[in-house]
Write a structure and sequence with these properties.
This protein has 133 residues and is of the alpha+beta class. The chain has a single domain, classed as Alpha-Beta Plaits (2-Layer Sandwich), CATH 3.30.70. The protein has five helices and five strands. The chain has a five-stranded mixed beta sheet, sandwiched between helices. 27% of the residues are buried. It binds flavin mononucleotide.
Amino acid sequence: MSRTRLIYRSQPFGFDSAMLASILSAARRNNPQWEITGALICRHDVYLQLIEGPSASIEALYSCILNDDRHIDIRLLLKEEMDERLFPAWSMLDDQAPSLFWSADDVAKGALEAASPQDLRAPFIRLSEAHPG
Ligand SMILES: Cc1cc2nc3c(=O)[nH]c(=O)nc-3n(C[C@H](O)[C@H](O)[C@H](O)COP(=O)(O)O)c2cc1C
């Protein structure tokens, strides 16, 4: 079965803790049945999410995410075949962005779109090492 890792970024639309809680609760309710794991890095100016799992599940979830009006300006940054999960123990780990390398100014200037696959994976690798499960 082919498996995919996908990273996108978006801009929160009306970011607050209640909205974040509702997104995370949907993720934690739905992702196990799709065999999806991942992490959501969140800050007032940016969502940076990694989702990983069976390719068909990832396509289905990403199309839901694209239609979600709680964020705007959604940009796919990386999509690749994967062997090993980075977050095997997490239906959706959340992180309030201390591990993000890019400042709000960098993000606004397009640093995420310009980042290499390795640079995009790096904050998630760090997070996964800090939260093995
Ligand atoms: C930034 C962001 C990340 C999301 N991540 C997930 C996710 O990992 N899993 C999920 O099921 N829904 C996620 N959602 C919510 C989906 O877009 C959608 O609202 C949800 O899947 C609907 O589930 P429900 O019908 O069970 O309420 C996310 C939404 C946003 C804005």
